[in-house]
Every structure is written in C-alpha cells, then in structure tokens.
Amino acid sequence: MIQLQLKLQGCVSVQVNAGPLAYARAFLDDSRSSKHPSKKVKELKDIFKQFIHACGTALDINEQLIKEDQFEYHEGLKANFRDMVKELSDIIHEP
C-alpha cells in the first residue's frame, strides 16, 4: 500500500517541477503543439488519457486499502487528482 501511495503522490501531488503537467504544457499547449507532428501530439494526448485512467484506478484501490487514519491524506490525493484532471482537460481540450 505504501508503494501505491508513493506512486500516487508522485503522479498527482507533484510539487517540485509540476511533473506530468509540465510535459503536457510543453508539448500540448495550443501555442506549442503545432510545432510537433500531429500524429505524435495525438499519441501523447492518448497517453495522458491512459495516465488519468490509471491514476483514477489507483486512487480507487488506495481508498479500499487505507485505514481511518489515512483518510485525510487520501482526500488530499483525490483533490490533487481532480485539479490535475481539470488542468490536463484544459490543455488537451477534452472533458
């Protein structure tokens, strides 16, 4: 369970260099995506969709495994995940 939480934290609670969002901004932002082959841009968007799905699944599993004393921590992960999904959706123009 601790390994799962560490992975989740690294994916959805990144604070040092913005993690996955930094890559999304660098390659998929409207002002930059036209500089890259459209096939690769679509591929990266699809990968981000898979990433979001995997993080959501991991959060569901974590919620089943945690004890009461980790509820607040888990809620923080979920809030960070929602924020990340919203920002990624804005960047890739997908709901």
Structure description:
- The protein contains five helices and no strands.
- It has 95 residues and is mostly helical.
Helix-strand layout with pairing:
Elements: H1 2-12, H2 19-28, H3 30-33, H4 38-65, H5 71-92
Structural features:
single chain, 95 residues, mainly alpha, elongated
Shape: elongated
- Backbone structural class: mainly alpha
CATH structural fold name: Methane Monooxygenase Hydroxylase, Chain G, domain 1
Total separate domains = 1
Helix percentage:
over 70%
Weakly predicted, low-confidence segments? none
The CATH architecture name reads: Up-down Bundle
Pfam family, one: DHR-2_Lobe_C
Protein name: DOCKER domain-containing protein
Family: Belongs to the DOCK family.
InterPro entries: DOCK, DOCK_C_lobe_C, DOCKER_dom, DOCKER_Lobe_C
Summarize the structure.
The chain is built from five helices and no strands. With 95 residues, the protein is mostly helical.
